[in-house]
Specification:
alpha/beta; Rossmann fold; seven-stranded parallel sheet; three-stranded mixed sheet; globular; binds nicotinamide-adenine-dinucleotide; binds 2'deoxy-thymidine-5'-diphospho-alpha-D-glucose
Length: 336
């Protein structure tokens, strides 16, 4: 029986992964989440009480707790992290605590308990930035060159995972994925933030010249990629996962404004993010060739579904916007 310790399962991708697994596989899930500002048990209401799902509130930095949970599972899928680049500029320390130290605690306990597979969920941001129009893409051979405290902390965690593999024989796999979008994404990230603002005729804050490019991937496609890597991926291997959908912030804003029938005048150019990476793009040919994965959801389908979800679940969005998030952003940015 496969029983997975999912860390950070109450966040955006973790919650989608839990829903995806419970629907598409017979695996059991133990979800360990600290419930930081980004963790939300509302995301998992539909699976609560199910025989294959259990939730434990706790911190991945808590060694004794992590060690105890590790004894009950066969696999680990590690999502738990501080995930927002803007926050990492304002408060880097917690990114090091959770993303670096927390990952080391998990790796130590996974090695000790002879976990069958430790799957580490990482990001394309560890590779640094591409030029807007050089036609290049990141792949598994791209050297690391992180720029933000967030990406530096993720890069450190990637190195630790490989070090535990090389030094202690821990069997691991890793995915470096591009920008996810879909249901339950915290409305600090561009797509849900812009939908929420557009709906209320508030400005859509576009950083710098709005031409920085990200490669958008519908979250269900990422979940399927992780499941395939766990099942069929070679131990000690890394797979790059991307959506073949390069868009800049202006294009994201235009798509959302058009879908909601709002005026382009809501687009507001604001001060750029410090160290803003210009472009990310992923060459996913390794996972496509070896495991038969490719993104199934086009950007047009995915963004339509995501806008619909955000509109249909405005109470979920508003609970967040009116809570801690609102206080935080008012303090940092004077509200946006
Ligand atoms: P998120 O911020 O929505 O969720 C993070 C979750 O981790 C939350 O539920 C939070 O409560 C939990 N958490 C944070 N610190 C914790 C701790 N110390 N102990 C236990 N739980 C803790 O993040 P997300 O967007 O779902 O990202 C999940 C993972 O995927 C991260 O590792 C991120 O680096 C990676 N990733 C994200 C994207 C993306 O586009 N969102 C792309 C590539 C990789
Ligand atoms: O590439 C994968 C990464 O994608 C993940 O590792 C991160 O966890 C995830 O947060 C995401 O990082 P980004 O910084 O790319 O996502 P964000 O939604 O914050 O920004 C996307 C782009 O939109 C980026 O170029 C900055 C721009 N932006 C963002 C916000 C929030 C704006 O122009 N205005 C905004 O208000």
């Amino acid at each position: 029986m496969t029983k997975i310790l999912v860390t950070g399962g109450a966040g955006f991708i973790g919650a989608n992964f839990i829903h995806w697994v419970l629907k598409n596989r017979d695996w059991e899930i133990l979800n360990l989440d600290k419930l930081t500002y980004a963790g939300n048990l509302e995301n998992l209401k539909a699976v609560e009480g199910g025989s294959r799902y259990e939730f434990i509130q706790g911190d991945i930095c808590d060694g004794p707790l992590v060690n105890d949970l590790m004894r009950k599972v066969t696999h680990v899928v590690h999502f738990a992290a501080e995930s927002h680049v803007d926050r990492s500029v304002l408060e880097p320390a917690v990114f090091v605590e959770t993303n670096v130290l927390g990952t080391q605690v998990l790796l130590q306990a996974a090695s000790k308990n002879k976990i069958k597979r430790f799957h580490h969920v990482s990001t394309d941001e560890v590779f640094g930035a591409l030029e807007l129009s050089d036609g290049k893409k990141f792949n598994e051979e791209t050297p690391y060159n992180p720029h933000s405290p967030y990406s530096a902390s993720k890069a450190s965690s990637d190195h630790l995972v490989r070090a535990y593999g090389d030094t202690f024989g821990l069997e691991y796999t890793m995915t470096n994925c591009s920008n996810n979008y879909g249901p339950y994404q915290f409305p600090e990230k561009i797509i849900p933030l812009f939908v929420a603002n557009a709906r209320e005729n508030k400005p859509l804050p576009i950083y710098g010249d709005g031409k920085a490019v990200r490669d958008y991937l519908y979250v269900d496609d990422h979940c399927e990629a992780i499941a395939l890597v766990i099942e069929k991926g070679k131990p000690q291997e890394t797979y790059c996962v991307g959506g073949d959908s390069e868009k800049n912030s202006i294009e994201i804003a235009e798509t959302i404004l058009e879908a909601l029938g709002k005026t382009r005048n809501l687009m507001t150019f604001v001060k750029d993010r410090p160290g803003h990476d210009r472009r990310y793009a992923i060459d996913h040919s390794k996972i496509t060739k070896e495991l038969g994965w490719k993104p199934r959801v086009t950007f047009e389908e995915g963004i339509a579904k995501t806008i619909r979800w955000n509109i249909d679940n405005m109470a979920w969005v508003e609970n967040i916007l009116n809570g801690e998030y609102q206080k935080y952003y008012k303090k940092q940015y004077g509200g946006k």
